[in-house]
Design brief:
The complex is a heterodimer of chains A (140) and B (119). Chain A contains 4 helices and 5 strands, in the order βαβαβαβαβ. With 140 residues, chain A is α/β, with parallel strands linked by helices. Chain B has a 5-stranded parallel β-sheet with strand order 4-3-2-1-5, sandwiched between helices. Classes of the chains: A alpha/beta (140), B alpha/beta (119).
């Protein structure tokens, strides 16, 4: 690792970037609860890096992944960092396509009002269609 | 076709690392290219030089090394994921390199398919 590697670009020197100019549709699929495992936190790190590449980025939340963006997370008692405010910062990185599966909300007794960011709620069929239109789907 | 591969689970604990290896090997045998494999989450343990499996078991780390050497695969370990799990240059197995998450995004952009192996 050299000095040129920065947090913002994740080890890529854009001056030599062969792929610059290519815009692909990246979808990050979040299926797991925010705490208990590190998947959600490390997924968010990938999302933030992807913002530096000027790609067409979207996030999908389904299954227990919907809990990642629920309001009122308090993690002090488990001594883990509450990283949920980061989802609110995604807009500042021009990541504004946040999709939530309606069935996952319904099954957990949640509604859009319980979420801490603006999202587009869609059925699992619509979600499947959205996924099929992506170039890259990374599921966490 | 160019396949980039992402490995998200640890060695021996989880099938995904074996599946990723078998997929990469099969793809290459069929004439496809695997330019880069990116190791994330507990997948970074694939790159530990300290791994010592029993002799009657497969050696996952050396298996990756052999495949990468024979087929010129760039095996990249995420630095943030590696450091929080105790993988650093001093115990990084030969053939792997430590870099940033940008290498994953770049692999996705450059490859025809990105195949994710995880839980």
């Amino acid at each position: 690792m050299g000095a040129e590697m920065t947090e913002a670009t994740g080890g890529i020197d854009f001056e030599d970037e062969e792929a610059s100019g290519v815009v692909k549709k990246f979808m990050f699929v979040n299926r797991k609860a925010p705490y208990g495992t590190i998947y959600a936190l490390e997924a968010l790190e990938v999302v933030l890096i992807s913002a530096a590449f000027d790609q067409d980025v979207s996030l999908a939340f389904l299954d227990d992944g919907v809990y990642q963006i629920i309001k009122g997370q308090h993690t002090k008692a488990i001594d883990v960092k509450n990283f949920s405010p980061t989802y609110r910062a995604l807009e500042g990185y021009d990541i504004e396509k946040l999709y939530v599966e309606k069935e996952s909300l319904d099954q957990r007794g949640l509604t859009e009002d319980d979420l801490l960011v603006d999202v587009q709620v869609m059925s699992s069929a619509e979600m499947a269609k959205m996924m099929s239109e992506q170039d890259i789907v990374i599921s966490f | 076709m160019k396949f980039a591969i992402m490995v998200n689970e640890g060695v021996y604990q989880h099938q995904s690392t074996d599946s990723a290896y078998q997929f990469a090997k099969a793809a290459i045998e069929k004439g496809h290219e695997v330019p880069r494999i990116f190791f994330y989450h507990d997948g970074v343990y694939n790159a530990s030089s300290l791994t010592e499996p029993p002799q009657d078991d497969r050696n996952i780390v050396s298996r990756w090394q052999k495949l990468a050497k024979e087929h010129n695969i760039d095996m990249v370990v995420c630095i943030a994921a590696a450091l929080r799990r105790g993988i650093k240059e001093s115990n990084l197995a030969e053939g792997f390199r430590i870099s940033g998450l940008g290498q994953l995004v770049e692999a996705g952009i450059q490859a025809d398919r990105l195949v994710v192996f995880g839980d």
